[in-house]
Amino acid sequence: MIIRKDEIVARPVNQLKCGLVEIAQWAGSYDGKPTTSFSLKKRKFNKETKQFEETPFLNVSDLPNIIVACQSMLIDYYKSLQNNSATTQTPQDEVPF
């Protein structure tokens, strides 16, 4: 892939890995309002090329890693909201769930 100098490469604001599963948090804006989105991907080892590749397919055995990654990302997300907020109703180290 060739990236021109005038292209902007988006980078996630937060990434977490659990096993072969990775979740990323992305910041953006829509109609002038800030937005947050999340992406989930899985890597698998290709025996022929002897390299890791991304795959859109998930197995039942991936579910525990997906759950842990999503819970961890949600905790980080709520903590970042609390740290960025001047007034909060919950203590700093508590997540509201």
Protein model, in words:
The protein has 97 residues and is an alpha+beta fold. The protein has one domain. It is 23% helix and 35% strand. It is built from one helix and four strands. A four-stranded antiparallel sheet has the order 1-2-3-4, covered by helices on one side. The longest helix is centred in the C-terminal third of the chain and has 22 residues. The N and C termini lie far apart (42 Å). The mean pLDDT is 83.
Topology at a glance:
Layout (H helix, E strand, L loop, with lengths): L13 E5 L2 E10 L2 E14 L4 E5 L7 H22 L13
Antiparallel strand pairs: 1-2, 2-3, 3-4
**Share of helix among residues?**
10-25%
Give the biggest beta sheet.
Answer: 4 strands, antiparallel
Strand order of the largest sheet: 1-2-3-4
Helix-strand makeup class? alpha+beta
- Elements, N to C (H/E): EEEEH
Beta percentage is: 35-45%
Give the beta-strand count.
4
Query: Separation of termini?
Result: 42 Å
Descriptive keywords:
35% strand, 4 strands, 1 helix, 97 residues, 4-stranded antiparallel sheet, alpha+beta
Quick overview:
With 97 residues, the protein is of the alpha+beta class. The protein has one helix spanning 63-84, and strands spanning 14-18, 21-30, 33-46, 51-55.
